[in-house]
Amino acid sequence: MAGARTKTPRPGVPVRGSRTGRPIMALLDLLGRRWTLRVLWELREAPATFRALRERCDDVSPTVLNVRLKELRESGIIELSDDEGYRLTEAGIGLRTALVPLTEWATHAWSRGAAKKSTR
């Protein structure tokens, strides 16, 4: 089952790839889980209901989506509002902002370098 293998990663608690539980390793474990980044991507500009998120995520299974939403809520990155559905918290907005340089690097530096190598 999707959520049975591990608990929600938390700073200070050992996670896959880190016995120390360094905060960055806990975050990378969380973000590396199937569909997590896609859910965050879909919430980057506006809140969404469960149904809307599922549709935007190419009909991800409801079980997997529920597990990811639970993990992101437990991590304080998203929250469920009474009227809008799921949305980024202040921490989630900070994460989105922190990912901007990575997005720019992937778009401008990495993808161009990868394209050059594929034409050789």
From TrEMBL:
Keyword tags: DNA-binding, Transcription, Transcription regulation
Record bears the keyword Transmembrane: no
SUPFAM superfamilies per the UniProt record, alphabetical: Winged helix' DNA-binding domain (SSF46785)
Domain HTH hxlR-type: 22-114
Gene3D superfamilies (UniProt xref): Winged helix-like DNA-binding domain superfamily/Winged helix DNA-binding domain (1.10.10.10)
UniProt keyword annotation of Membrane present: no
Domain of life: Bacteria
Listed transmembrane segments: none
PANTHER family reported for this sequence: HTH-TYPE TRANSCRIPTIONAL REGULATOR YODB (PTHR33204:SF37), TRANSCRIPTIONAL REGULATOR, MARR FAMILY (PTHR33204)
Protein name: Helix-turn-helix transcriptional regulator
Species lineage: Bacteria, Pseudomonadati, Myxococcota, Myxococcia, Myxococcales
